[in-house]
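User: quick one, fold this
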Amino acid sequence: MCSAAVASAKKSSPAPMRFLYRLILPTAVAAYSNVSRQGYLNRQYTRSNDDVVSPALLSSGVFVAHNHHPVVSHRTINSFLRSTAKCEVGTADVEHMKLAARLAGIGKGNTYPNPAVGCVLVRHQAEDEIVGSGFHPRAGMPHAEVFALLEACGHVDDGVEAARSAMDDVPASTSDEHQKVLDLLKIYKSEDGASKLFKDHLIDSDITAYVTLEPCCHVGQTPPCALSLVAAGIKRVVVGFPDPNPRVAGGGIKVLQDSGVDVLVLSSAATKDTDSVEEESAVANECANLVEHFVKRISPREEPLGSLDELINGKKRRALRKLAGQQKTDGTIHQVEWPRDFSISDEDKKDSDFGERVNLNVRFLEKVDNLLWDHEIVLLRLNNVVHKKKGAKVLSQRVATELDAHVAQVLGHTALHRPGFDPVLDLDELASNDDGNE
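Assistant:
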């Protein structure tokens, strides 16, 4: 029975039959899988909706970047375990990409300056079988495709849990899983590492890789994912969103196609008035939304801004400080608080030079970066990391330099400004209307 037929049967069946479809069918399908149903139910998947994975909004209106990742009900995963026979390939592709997007949501907010990406590997037999899955946990760690390959090739039991173990720079507790990931990463980054780990492991199987973002084709901190998929013997790749990064920009797709891999890119524009096309468009847009701010980070502006500190003269700087101060007074300014870190001592916070030494928190950077793209002015709350004005000033400037933003001091706190691609604020107009009083 194809996925469309299953969906239709579920809608038209009485309640007892719907219960059977929900409970017994996933169990039967999982019996054919080398990933047990209970194993999938034990995994903690998170939503990719912005209102769920974004840092918590306190009653004061302050966003706090934190380590918690909300959990999706395990029942929502069951639908992805159901057979998706190839009688309607497009529907199966959409369903598997939905799972990849959910996996990407686990890492979202933790991957700066990289994008959030999810990947699912599906073996096509009489019934589809998920043989590997993963997501990108943070910069410097393997990408989503690699975690999925590590599971499919037998190097880890669970690609998602392996990725979870790598989300923190310094794990709360040193786990065997985390150490295994570090050991595998060392092999992967070595000469011909992808071949050592994946060469022809999956060549005898008909496997499709579902990736929310076009696989990379360049060498960064890790080898190219496109070549890793090729080395493993993947036959087909479905891409949720083409990577606009100038170092990729279709290159990953070309590498795959030149190696004989069939590549399909989902379309975000519905061209036919059918449910399947609308679902494809919806999941393609979901993949695009996952990397919305990453795209802005790596896309060149039509007119380069140059140095904001040089462009924003005295009158503009005064008008900007005045506006930020007014927004703070009105409670309308967007604020981001540095997350609590119990490894930072009170002595560190009181040290005037600590702002120069502390590592920039990627969750904090990503949240500030996203809000700057959307609103152009963001207030930094740094009390959890520095207590001295000198430390706050130095740390604020480091954050501004990292994000190509301009610093403006506001009543003891620091506000950053950076124009969006379609600027919201007109500093020339603000400056011309400024009466000189702050």
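User: anything notable?
Assistant: The CA atoms of residues 211 and 333 lie 36 Å apart.
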